[in-house]
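Why does residue order matter? Because the sequence determines the fold. Keep that principle in mind as you read this record.
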Amino acid sequence: MEGDLIMSVDTILNVLFIINGLVAIYFLCSDLVFCKY
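Structure:
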């Protein structure tokens, strides 16, 4: 039971990390686009 819980928490953290990275890239691209014009 504890192993499954740890595994799910690890998966959630990985998903959050990926989402955070995508959001950061999105905002960086938005800033670059705004800086261009």
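The CA atoms of residues 24 and 30 lie 10 Å apart.
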